């Protein structure tokens, strides 16, 4: 017997402010897998935010960080935050 049915809301990555190329590079670095066809929850925001924080801390400690990439990651983080505010259970289809 089904007790609870949960509706999953999905949005195409193309319909968001997510820089798909930047996220694809990060995703492949994290997972070793291709992003094409993958559905990612907006809760990935936590991982993106942690990554940005780590980069900023590394910079403060004097490590060489690609500042342009850090800016791209901050934009990516903002896009995920925006979607998270819309719906915490939203899924993004790449």
What's the overall average pLDDT, rounded?
Answer: 89
What's the arrangement of strands in the largest beta sheet? 1-3-2
H/E element order: EHEHHE
Report the β-strand fraction as a percent range. Answer: 5-15%
Termini gap: 33 Å
* CA radius of gyration: 15 Å
Structural shape:
elongated
Indicate the structural class. Answer: mainly alpha
Helix content: 40-55%
Number of DSSP-assigned strands: 3
Number of helices: 3
Largest sheet: 3 strands, mixed
Write the layout of secondary structure elements.
Elements: E1 10-12, H1 20-31, E2 39-41, H2 45-60, H3 67-86, E3 91-93
Parallel strand pairs: 1-3
Antiparallel strand pairs: 2-3
Write up this protein.
The protein has helices spanning 20-31, 45-60, 67-86; strands spanning 10-12, 39-41, 91-93. The longest helix is centred in the last third of the chain and has 20 residues, at 67-86. It is mainly alpha-helical. It has a three-stranded mixed sheet with strand order 1-3-2, with no helix packed on it. 51% of the residues lie in helices and 10% in strands. The mean pLDDT is 89. Helix 2 packs antiparallel against helix 3 (67-86).
């Amino acid at each position: 017997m089904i007790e609870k049915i949960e509706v999953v809301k999905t949005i195409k990555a193309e319909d968001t402010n997510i820089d798909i190329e930047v996220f694809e590079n990060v995703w492949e670095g994290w997972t070793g897998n291709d992003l094409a066809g993958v559905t990612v929850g907006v809760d990935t925001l936590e991982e993106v935010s942690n990554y940005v924080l780590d980069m900023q801390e590394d910079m403060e400690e004097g490590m060489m960080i690609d500042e342009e990439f850090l800016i791209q990651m901050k934009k990516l983080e903002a896009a995920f935050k925006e979607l998270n505010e819309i719906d915490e259970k939203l899924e993004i289809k790449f």
